[in-house]
Write a structure and sequence with these properties.
Length: 335
C-alpha cells in the first residue's frame, strides 16, 4: 500500500461523513497517474502554490492601491488569511483540510491589477464582460503552464468558481472558503483602514462590538467559532442569524466608510482609466501581446477580447503601470 493510499484510508476513518474524501474525487478533465505520496487534493494545493499566477498575487491590490507602507494587505496576504481561517474551520469540523486549502489558495488567482477597480474596468470595456472567479478557473484550466493548465480536480475548480456570495459550492469545503473569504477581508480591511487613518475602532457602531467584538482578534474568534458551532455535523456550512446579520451589516458599514471612501479611493479613477486605455491599446496592437498568449489564441480559437483580458488580468499593479508608461507617457530623447 502506497503512502497516498494509507492517507486516503485515514481520511475514511477520521473525517466526517460530510467531508469530500480524496479517494472519491470526481477526478480531473485529463486522466493522469496518481502520486504515490500525495492524495489528489494535496497535489492540487501544491500545483496552485507553485504556479506563476499565485506568485503574482504579492503585487496585486487588495483594497488600497499602491499604499505607502509595508504592512497593508495585498491579494496574496488576503489569500493566506482566507486559507488560515478556512483550514481552522475545516479541521474543527473534520472536513477535508487539503481540499479546503487548495480552494482557498486558488480562489483569487484571476484578480486583475488594482483589485476590484481593475475588474470593473475590464467588465465595462470588454463586450463579453469580466468576472475574477471565472478568470481564476480559466487560469487553472487553460493559461498556466504555457496553455496546458494545472488539470485540477473537479472539487477544487468548483470551489474556486463558486467562492463569491452568489456562488453555490457543491462541497462543504467550498462553502467554508466562501464564508472565510468574507471573514478575512472584513477584518483585515478594518485593520488596514485603521492603519491608514481612515477609520478608528471607536467609529465602528457599538452593536457590532457587542455581537462580534471590539478588536480584530475578538471578531475573528467570534465569527470562526460561530461557523463551527452552527455547522458541526450538519450538511451545510452556516452561521447563527445574529452573527451573520451583524457581519452583513458590518460589511455595509465598511462600504460606506472605507470601500467607497474618497480618501481610500482617490487613485481608483486613475487605475480604471489606465486599465481601459491598456485594453483599447492592445485591441488595436495585438502584436504587443506576448507570443504565448497569441499562440494560445491560435490553438484554441479564443477571441481577441479574451486574449487581451487574459494578458491584462495577469499583470501586477507595478507591471500595469510600467506598460502604461511605455505606451502613453512621453520619454526623453537624445540624438
Amino acid at each position: 500500500m502506497t503512502i497516498r493510499e494509507q492517507l486516503e484510508c485515514r481520511e475514511m476513518e477520521y473525517l466526517s461523513s460530510y467531508a469530500a474524501l480524496s479517494k472519491n474525487s470526481k477526478g480531473r478533465k485529463a486522466e493522469e497517474p496518481q502520486c504515490d505520496i500525495r492524495p489528489v487534493f494535496q497535489r492540487d494545493r501544491d500545483r496552485i502554490l507553485h504556479c506563476k499566477a499565485f506568485r503574482r498575487l504579492k503585487q496585486k491590490t487588495q483594497v488600497f492601491l499602491l499604499p505607502n507602507g509595508d504592512h497593508y494587505r495585498t491579494r496574496l496576504t488576503h489569500t493566506l488569511e482566507v486559507s488560515q481561517n478556512a483550514r481552522t474551520i475545516a479541521k474543527a469540523l473534520r472536513l477535508n483540510e487539503d481540499l479546503t486549502e487548495a480552494i482557498a489558495l486558488g480562489h483569487d488567482l484571476g484578480h486583475t491589477p488594482f483589485g476590484h477597480a481593475g475588474e470593473r474596468a475590464l467588465d465595462e470595456v470588454n463586450p463579453f464582460g469580466f468576472c475574477h472567479n471565472i478568470q481564476s478557473v480559466r487560469i487553472v484550466e487553460r493559461l498556466e503552464k504555457g496553455g496546458k493548465g494545472l488539470n485540477l480536480t473537479w472539487e477544487v475548480v468548483d470551489g474556486i468558481l463558486n467562492h463569491k456570495s452568489s456562488g453555490s459550492p457543491r462541497t462543504l469545503e467550498g462553502q467554508i472558503v466562501r464564508l472565510s473569504d468574507k471573514i478575512a477581508y472584513l477584518n483585515h480591511d478594518i485593520d488596514d483602514a485603521i492603519r491608514g487613518g481612515i477609520l478608528k475602532e471607536r467609529d465602528i457602531p457599538e452593536r457590532f462590538h457587542r455581537i462580534l467584538g471590539d478588536t480584530t482578534r475578538k471578531r475573528l474568534n467570534t465569527l470562526i467559532h460561530d461557523v463551527v458551532t452552527n455547522s458541526m455535523d450538519q450538511s451545510e456550512i452556516s452561521m447563527s442569524d445574529e452573527v451573520e446579520g451583524a457581519m452583513k451589516e458590518l460589511r455595509d458599514f465598511m462600504f460606506e466608510r472605507v470601500y467607497l471612501n474618497p480618501i481610500a479611493k482617490r487613485e481608483e479613477k486613475k487605475a480604471i482609466h489606465m486599465i481601459k486605455d491598456l485594453y483599447r491599446f492592445y485591441m488595436e496592437n495585438l502584436d504587443e501581446i506576448p507570443k504565448e498568449y497569441q499562440n494560445m489564441q491560435g490553438e484554441s480559437g479564443v477571441n481577441k477580447e479574451q486574449m487581451v483580458c487574459d494578458y491584462i488580468a495577469g499583470m501586477t499593479d507595478t507591471y500595469a503601470v510600467k506598460k502604461f508608461e511605455d505606451y502613453f507617457v512621453p520619454k526623453s530623447w537624445k540624438i
